[in-house]
Structures are given as C-alpha cells and as structure tokens.
Amino acid sequence: MPGLLWYAGALLAWAKGGPPAEISTVTIPKNFMIGTATSAYQVEGAWNVSGKGVSIWDTYVHEHPNLIAGRSNGDIAADSYHQYLQDVAALKKLGVDFYRFSISWPRILPHGQVNVVNQAGIDYYNKLINELIRNKIEPMIAMYHWDLPQTLQDLGGWANPIMAEYFEDYARVLFSKFGDRVKWWITFVDPDITVKSYIPSWNKAPGVNSPHVGLYLAIHTLIQSHSRAHRLYNNEFRDTQKGKLGLFANPIYSSEGDYPQIISEELEKLSIAQGYPKSRLIKFTPEEVTNIKGTFDFLGLNYYTTRLVRAPQPTVDLMNAPDNNVNLIIDPKWPPSASPNLKVVPWGFRKLLNWIKRAYNNTPVLVTGNGFSDRGETEDTERIKYIIVSGTTSTVFSKYYVHSFYKRCP
C-alpha cells in the first residue's frame, strides 16, 4: 500500500511506488497523486429530506442565523446530495485521483443510534462511492466533521462519555456498509475545533458555554471514541477490508499512550489555583491508556498558519485559551489571507513536519489540509508560491518525508 500526502488547498498527493527520486526545489514529484476534500454539511444540502435527522449545525444556524456571515446555512449548500454525478464529473475533469468527503452521521442514523438506520442515506453514499470508483477516483471517508446528531447533543454531546460507545456503533455501520470499497478512514476532522465549540466566543455549534470543564470532558471522549473505532476495525474488519485509519497526535502517538506529563502537571496547577479540588483534565485509567496507545495507521495533519509564542504577560489576552499559559503572537509582517486569523506562513509547514518527525518517531503523516484561502481570483501565483516555499525548498520534502512512507507503509 503506497503512502499519502496532502498539500495546498487540501490537495492530496500519493507516492505510487519505487524509491524516492531526487526532485528540484521547484517541482512536485510526478509520481504524486492529487485530490481534494469537502465536508458533508458544507456541500450536501438536503438537510431534511430522505429520512435525514437534524444535526447540531442545522439547529445552530437556524436558531442563530445572525452569527453566520450573510445569514447563510447548509440547507441547500452545493446540493451535492442531488448533484453528486456532476460533482464527480467535475472532479474527473479536474484530474484528481482522491476525494476525501465526510459522512453525515444524522443522514445514516437519524436519531444518532443504531436502532434506526436510514437506508436512503446508505444508498446515497453507496452511489457516490461507486461513481468515484467508476471514474478511477479513490474515496476517503471522514467519519465525523462537526455535524453531531442533535439527539445526541441533547444527551450532553461529546462531554458525555457514553458518546464513545455510540461512536463505535456508528463506525461499525460505516465499516460494514462501505469498507469493502473504502480503504482510507479518518475518525475526526479538526478534533480541536469540535472541543473548542465549548468556548462560546468561537461561535460554533453546538454553542455550549463550558470552556473550563466541558472542553476537557469532550477531549477525553473524543480520544476514547477514536481508540474504540480503531480497535473495532482491527478486530472485525481489517483482515478482510485491509484499510487504514488515523487521527491526531498525543496521546494516540505517544509512547506512553497518555497526555504529556507537562500538560498534566500544568493543568493541575492551574485548576487548583482557580479553586477546583483537582485537575480539570480527566485522567485515563491504566486500562484506557493500554487501549489508546498505538491506535493509528497514520497521523492526520492540518496546517494553515503559524503562531509565535512567549511567556504569558498579565496584560495580554490569551486568545480565549488561558490554559495554554503562553501568549500566541501573530507577526504583523506575515501576508494576510481571506481568513483574518490565518496569516500566510508557508515555512511553518516545513518546520512542523520536521518537529513531527522527531517527536513521533517518523510516524506516517497524512496531511489532510494545507494552504490558505483567497478571495476567488483566478490569478493564483501566490498559492503556487505557497506550495513551493512550504514543501520543496527543503530536502525534508524528498529525502525523508516522502521516504518515510516507503519505509513504513507496506
């Protein structure tokens, strides 16, 4: 099985095989394959048809339309639910080899649990997968991209530990229905955004105000949800389906299978100083640590910008993340993008890859998102320059980053 790499604008590259070739400092290797990515809520539309249940984003945008630019929502979006044939044709014309899309949990399980399975939702994704394969486009599925069924949020959402069990049940449905054709799986896209939704200033569904406690309950549940899905795949599906499944960094990729010691110590100090009787970071039991450790086939990585850090100063806002205990700084000289909080810092991508190589023992990396947003101009020289600076100005791109896939991916 070859290895994978995503680059600018969530483009995907896959080294096909053979030894890594020397490349120039301005050339992306010819044996890399290219793809793109979407999320269900952003493109599917059909929010209340064919048996689909309500998601937290459906609820959030309908109850708080003023929080969304232009009062837009995903009720219709790109209408991919009805226009998937045209979408796949466009992907084929674009020349992509991979398409990463997410499954809408409430489209498959309208009430969030497996007692009711929506066959119309199964049929839709089967048709999409089959059409992609017919056009020689490899499907890659993200199981969760922020659109939790509202019925599960009503039970507490990711702050409720029972969610790990429900996610495993959901994963079993996906593996059994689609795993005969889908070989690449991601459990959670941007899991940090999922848990940061507990910070009210982020203005993201479900809009829960519990930044100091709920956030850490959600982190605990997400990590266990991933580990349960990975162990499920190993135990019931891997031998016959032979796919790969990944997520994110600590503690999944740590040798200990637990939070880094410095995080545990600092959060305990902060929590006690704030009047809590113990740390707000939920501790894993020894059994949970054992179950979490090593539950990966690759590390999923998104990179969009960089922050500089320095020791905290009482007069400086910690950007709604006081537990960071550092000041996050944006260099005013960095070029802007169409997203105000995402400055264009391509060299940070290379530095991050270097750090991951050292920190996680050369773990295979799937770059699931990279690049920067523009304002829709057809002149794309700045993003071309971004690809060059972020990847090919260093031997990291060809000499060990690509080579690590040949060594580590069977």
List the helices and strands and how they pair.
Elements: E1 3-7, E2 11-15, E3 35-37, H1 40-43, H2 56-63, H3 80-94, E4 98-102, H4 105-108, H5 119-134, E5 138-144, H6 150-153, H7 162-178, E6 184-188, H8 191-196, H9 214-236, H10 238-241, E7 244-246, H11 261-273, H12 286-292, E8 299-303, E9 308-310, E10 327-329, H13 347-359, E11 365-370, H14 381-392, H15 396-408
Parallel strand pairs: 3-4, 4-5, 5-6, 6-7, 8-11
Antiparallel strand pairs: 1-2, 9-10
Helix pairs in contact: 3-5, 7-9
Strand content: 5-15%
Number of helices: 15
- Looking at the overall shape, the CATH architecture is Alpha-Beta Barrel
Gyration radius, to the nearest Å?
Answer: 21 Å
Which topology does CATH recognise?
Answer: TIM Barrel
The percentage helix is 25-40%
Span between termini: 5 Å
CATH hierarchy class name? Alpha Beta
Parts with pLDDT < 50 across at least 5 consecutive residues: 1-24, 392-410
Order of H and E elements: EEEHHHEHHEHHEHHHEHHEEEHEHH
The main pleated sheet reads as: 5 strands, parallel
Count of all domains: 1
CATH-assigned homologous superfamily: Glycosidases
Structural class: alpha/beta
DSSP strand count: 11
Signal peptide: 1-17
Keywords: Glycosidase, Hydrolase, Signal
GO molecular function: beta-glucosidase activity
Family: Belongs to the glycosyl hydrolase 1 family.
Describe this structure in words.
- The strands form 4 sheets. Strands 3-4-5-6-7 form a 5-stranded parallel β-sheet.
- The chain has a single domain (3-408), classed as Glycosidases (TIM Barrel), CATH 3.20.20.80.
- It has 15 helices and 11 strands.
- It is an alpha/beta fold and 410 residues long.
- The model is unreliable at 1-24 and 392-410 (pLDDT under 50).
- GO terms for molecular function: beta-glucosidase activity.
